[in-house]
User: Fold this.
Amino acid sequence: MNTPLWRPSNTSDMAVTRLERELGFHSYSELHTWSIENPGDFWFRAWDDCHIIGNKGSQFYTPGKDFISTTFFSDATLNVAENLLSKGRDGDIAIVSILEEGTRSQLTWKQLRSQVGATTAAMKAVGIVKGDRVVAWAPNVAETIIFALGALSIGAIVSTASPDFAPLAVQDRFGQIEPKILLAADTYQYNGKTFDCSFKIAEIESLLPTLTSTIHINDYQTWIAPFMGVQPTYEQLPFDHPGFVLFSSGTTGKPKCIIHSGAGVMLKALAEQLYQLEIHALQKVFFFTTCGWMMWNWLTMALGRGATVILFDGAPMYPAPTRLFDIAEREKLDFLGVSAKFIDSAHKAALAPANTHDLSNLRVIASTGSVLSPESFDYVYENIKRDVHLASMSGGTDICGCFLAGVPTQPVYRGELQGACLGMATDVFNAEGKSAAIDEKGELVCTVPFPSKPIGFWSDRDNEKYLAAYFQGFPGVWTHGDFASKSATGGFTLFGRSDATLNSKGVRIGTAEIYRVVENFPEIIEAMAVSQEWEGDTRVILFVVLKAGESFTPEREQAVRSALRTQASPRHVPDLIMVAPALPRTKSNKLVELAVTDVVNGREVRNLDSLANPQALDWFKEFHV
Assistant:
């Protein structure tokens, strides 16, 4: 039996314990079973426990003909911005913003409400109405949250991206949803450098012809100044009114535009923050993220718990590897959220914050983005903090939330995610589509709908893309694309992606965006990018096939890397580029990334019979470590 690394010391006042007690259950397992067998009752209770403001209606859960058509709170009305702005007292701090070079600013709840009210009025003055799309190509600063809340108060739809995305990558995303207004970065800082974005703004504007207004972050206060003093107003909207568009890149075509209910995302995040992580009013909550990752949306939702949200824009280990721990100490964080890659990097840098930093306030360390290795669990408890709840989480952009997360009333076991979130019927299926045995590897699935499931994909006729993305593995069951197993403790172990989506430094990206850039090089016939499990994390390997007689010189390799960095983003740059003699393809001539992914990770190749040239896989075996 796995030995616990941590046990909770006092659980009597926790939200999960109260819910168990009030419903007459004696374990988290019993409570979880009830929550997925009675989704209407559970999410009704979550609405109340999270103190959602609005008209709840009477139809809390309406099963449809399938996963997609099932609805939640179909006759409810509410406003997300109103909920996120209603939980703090005027003089308390709502948002702290920290830039890489050290500038720190803060907003009280009164100031935040005032600036959101002015933003709402400024948007209405330029013609923004319910259903319009507003977008931000912006750093992780307070203005981006204020901009989003102003839009949500109207019922506009928000989409965000980080400023390291090149103009064409911005077009690939925002161009599909035809935005009216853009919040644009003037500069951003990363790893000791300041990047000037001003020359890119005009290019982005030319690529997004539907824009009617662009607001520079440096001019944000000037833009809203004429409207200061206007009180916030909140359009009451149906529960499934679109609030966000998030983007998930695939292996072909432009990134998928995933439409999320703003209320669904909010309820799911607040339920996680309450039940799985015990986040409450006045706690200080930090997650290292950019505006291009769904954890930005998740972090913003912590305002709905009445928490103080701490923002940081910059490199997590600059100017010193201890930077995030410095923030944790100075801001007296209750909750520190990072990527698994960051914890691995801190381990390799031999950091020992337990000896160098006062982390006495720190209650939870959360990790997501990729698999947290067993060794990283050891490192956290040996070198960061012994009496901390380490909550390894797994979910994604697709659900803007988690399938698996912390369980604050349960022990933490080495290498395991503690359990499925309440309301999430998370399971592992074997190849036959049956619930896998304990310790049997299989596909991570979800068998019951949940409020943050996508409303749909943008311009997706008959939900074709939606169905293809999640429901081809097992009919009617959400298949997420992760290898996992269940453990005897009630937890789960993750083993990385089971599909061809890349995991680059904790952020999932699609291969199509890489190929679009790489295949513009005349000497390259075709390319294939795959993720390989590597030193406790993952690395991206790009394989290229060259024209006869061509050579891949260091200069050409550097040109490819530079093109990916400038035409896509730094996260699209692979860790390794290798010249391959040939790439495997199906009999219908389609390249098969999954086959190469399986080979380089030492797994049995799936659907080998479908390959026209299975012998091409032999060359890739040398990369298996």
Observations:
- Residues 424 and 450 are 7 Å apart (CA to CA).
- The two ends are 28 Å apart (CA to CA).
- Residues 4-315+393-486 form a domain with the Rossmann fold fold (CATH 3.40.50.12780).
- DSSP finds 19 helices and 35 strands in the chain.
